[in-house]
Design goal:
Length: 377
């Protein structure tokens, strides 16, 4: 990336200044595209001559003193920002002066340069004004983008269903913990939760409207979802009759509360659920969005790719999802432009893939304790 900026940046108005302790630490493609090089004091005088060329000039060990090659090597003295006897004292004085300038200024300040931190704590993430606005509109904020570092929401209603895929179940669990933390403060949606084989989310049972963690409760769970689906279909037909067919389905969906169903491990429900319930659930995943029932489905993509039952087949048709891992390591979520020589992601990094386009995101780190969730309910 640095080599490309050095080579092509000027053509689009991007100029680069880069510093290094020695010239040899810069890669050859970068060095070859840097026209102007400045040498400050170095212990080995040959280093300076390698940069500016052969010269008898010597650089004194004085802050800001250096050599630059114009037509000939030229000795110069840089104006120092503050007075100081050595580098540390200059840095300290700069910091002090910056604080004084900030305290003396009472007008508007420029926005800070957006930087994605190593870890985004959910407690601070949820306090942002932009995040609160998403929650107030019924959204589920859970991450930030890498370009503007702005909060992003899970667009489950727009996308209808969303997958959460990884090659490790613990990464899927961490993402669900963040989503549960987010929905715990959202009063605009109803939530159903089907737990995984380890009952990892049982402690959040009281934070959702429907919960299931084994075969019998899963059958009841799906039956209640089917009843909700049929009730809403009947209600929509009644609304259409009352309005002589003028009411659209979108108008109807705006008047009802969305039901978001979290399936934390689709392989577990395939192994546990009765065949009747599996068929019913596959149909709900396929058609539930018609009545405001949306699914967020978690899976280890390697296991899901090897399954071909009704639920797995329906799940693999979905076009939107969060991929915690490399795009090239899975084949469920299609990406139009697959990266070349893709690197491994850092903790909490992921791709939000929608309709063939992948956007890199940073997922907020979830609450650690259940009490931290309950305090926001």
């Amino acid at each position: 990336m640095a080599a490309q900026i050095a080579r092509e940046g000027v053509s689009v108005g991007i100029h680069m200044a880069i510093s290094a302790g020695r010239q040899s630490v810069l890669r050859a493609p970068v060095l070859a595209n840097i026209k102007h090089q400045i040498s400050l004091f170095m212990i080995d005088g040959m280093e300076s001559r390698n940069i500016v060329g052969r010269t008898d000039l010597q650089i004194e060990e004085v802050p800001g003193r250096g050599l630059v090659k114009l037509e000939q090597p030229t000795l110069f003295q840089t104006a120092l920002p503050v007075e100081g006897d050595d580098t540390l004292s200059i840095i300290n004085r700069i910091q002090e002066e910056s604080k004084e300038m900030r305290n003396a200024w009472h007008g508007e300040l420029p926005l800070p340069i957006p930087m994605v931190p190593d870890v985004i704590e959910f407690t601070s993430f949820i306090e942002k004004q932009e995040t609160k606005a998403i929650v107030n509109n019924g959204g589920i904020p859970f991450a930030v983008d890498f370009e503007n570092v702005e909060p992003m929401e899970l667009s489950v209603i727009e996308d209808q269903n969303t997958l959460i895929l990884s090659d490790r179940m613990d990464a899927v669990e961490q993402t669900y913990l963040t989503l549960i933390s987010s929905i715990s403060i959202n009063q605009h949606i109803d939530v159903g939760l089907i737990d995984n084989v380890s009952s990892r989310f049982r402690v959040y049972k009281e934070n959702v409207n429907l919960y299931a963690d084994h075969a019998e409760t899963m059958d009841v769970f799906v039956e209640r979802l089917q009843q909700l689906f049929e009730t809403r279909e009947d209600a929509f037909r009644q609304v259409q009759t009352a309005t002589n067919g003028r009411a659209t389905r979108n108008d109807f969906l705006k008047e009802i509360r969305p039901m978001i169903v979290f399936i934390t491990d689709v392989s577990f429900i395939i192994e546990s659920m009765s065949f009747t319930s599996q068929s019913m659930l596959a149909n709900l995943i396929d058609t539930g969005a018609r009545t405001g029932i949306y699914f967020v489905i978690g899976a280890v993509h390697g296991a899901l790719e090897r399954q071909y039952d009704d639920i797995a087949t329906t799940v693999k048709k979905q076009k939107a999802g969060i991929l915690i891992g490399r795009i090239t390591d899975q084949s469920i979520l299609e990406v139009l432009s697959r990266p070349y020589k893709e690197q491994n992601l850092l903790p909490y990094e992921a791709y939000y893939i929608r309709q063939g386009k992948a956007e890199k995101i940073k997922i907020a780190a979830p609450y650690v304790n259940r009490e931290e969730v309950n305090v926001h309910v």
